[in-house]
Amino acid sequence: ELQHINTDLLVIGGGPGGYVAAIYAAKNGLKVTLAEKAELGGTCLNVGCIPTKALVKSAEICRNIYESKHFGVNIDGVATVDMTRVIERKNEVCSRLVDGIDYLMKKNNINHIKGSASFVSPTEVKIEGETDYLVSAKDVIVATGSKISNINIPGIDLPVVMNSTSALSCNQLPKSITIIGGGVIGMEFAFIYKNFGAEVHVIEFMDRLLTMVDPDISQEIYDIATEAGIKVNTSSKVVKIQSSTDGSAVVTYQNEDGEHLVVTEKVLVAIGREPNLDGLMIDKTDAELNERGRGIKVDAHMRTNVEHLYAIGDVTNIIQLAHVASHQGIVAVKNILGKNVEMDYSAVPNVIFTSPEIASVGKNENECKANNVGYTVSRFDFAGNGKALTMNEPRGYIKLIKENTTQKIIGGSIIGADASALISVLTLAIQNGLGEEEIAHTIFPHPTTSEVIHEAAMGFGLGALHQ
Ligand code: FAD
């Protein structure tokens, strides 16, 4: 029997899109119901952003120990990796955060229902769980996220083959691993395994790694990866995976030199994610989908073509980032509240947690060229930054992009120490239309890696001071 519930807003999915929308709506006085079929926090907290960064940290500690002699610290004996503890610690971090969201649901009087939601009509949704509900809502936000894409390679289902989700709970460190896909997830895992001391191969179909960043940044991370011992093959297509008699994986790939084999203990497939509409019965709403059915189509207000029906986050297939999902959630709720707010994607920061990190925001050079934007670049190398040298991280650089007509900073990329933290400064600058002068007139603390931003801004004028 179905229990009936009336609510102002029903949010389907409790990831960073859905749970943030729910909290923001509740804070604005709406009666909110949130349906989540798995764990609160979604992909991001359970099998995405947070667990990967927990592993990044463990792997970095391992690398620091390998490099400790350089810093004048001698460690007796051999460092070993206890992967069971690495995964256990990762789980502790994730569950602490998931519990935190559960607390926030209660604190904000959000009716959190554990169950799987499916549409009956645009504003009526069935939720099947321990108890079954029929929810009638004034407005509905779909935030069902994304799922791992399938790829048709023979052998993809072999037990030696992992995806990002299974890799995050694998409590044995492979001695060697082949990673299929040199995108964000593939490269983060490549450095995680390398820093843990494993032999790592990356096979990428495109002609460069991380195609979302400028080619020079791809080249820099390629050089750094190769110097660290990661074996990278670009323009290479994986054709099959087999398992050998001793249980290891044999990956066959083709490139212009012919067919090659790489034998490793494990394989990790990281070729991308796609919008998740599984079991949602979205067709009951008449909501328009994107081309080839890839996710729900929305306008800048995060509205679908159906009245009172909104979609946010990965399910819209616009940008697959947690902070974009959250921001879209807030925009959707503001529009539900009768404000007229549009999503602005001109200053979306993007971070890749390789070693060193890569971060970018706004337009990159490729996009400027594609859109015929006249621009000037100022680059400053981390080799000229004192703090980076104390950290033994002299590699990388910052690149600021200024639009010639407006003289404003419209983009920036950083590959180097602390890039993930530094990018917020550029985001604030771009979001608020600052130019090189405003950044150059700002006092940056010494010695910090943030000084590279100041130097790059000075570089547009008479030149950087330390280069
Ligand atoms: P999701 O987080 O996918 O949440 C959707 C939720 O909806 C899920 O909990 C699901 O169970 C639920 N759901 C689905 N269907 C139903 C239904 N019918 N009924 C009820 N509930 C349903 N992004 C970053 O910004 N930074 C990073 O460092 C980063 N690292 C990542 C690393 C990995 C390995 C992966 C896989 C992703 C990473 N991402 C990262 C991407 C990020 O996780 C996603 O962009 C983000 O989680 C999208 O949020 P969302 O709310 O749209 O969807």
What value does the Rg take, in angstroms? 24 Å
What level of helicity do the residues show? 25-40%
Class from helix and strand fractions: alpha/beta
Total DSSP E strands: 21
General shape:
globular
Question: Which parts are unreliable, with pLDDT below 50 for 5 consecutive residues or more?
Answer: none
Rounded mean pLDDT is 97
Beta-strand share of residues: 25-35%
Please give the order of strands in the largest beta sheet: 1-2-3-4-5
Subcellular location: Cytoplasm
Main location: cytoplasm
Keywords: Cytoplasm, Disulfide bond, FAD, Flavoprotein, Lipoyl, NAD, Nucleotide-binding, Oxidoreductase, Redox-active center
Catalytic activity: N(6)-[(R)-dihydrolipoyl]-L-lysyl-[protein] + NAD(+) = N(6)-[(R)-lipoyl]-L-lysyl-[protein] + NADH + H(+)
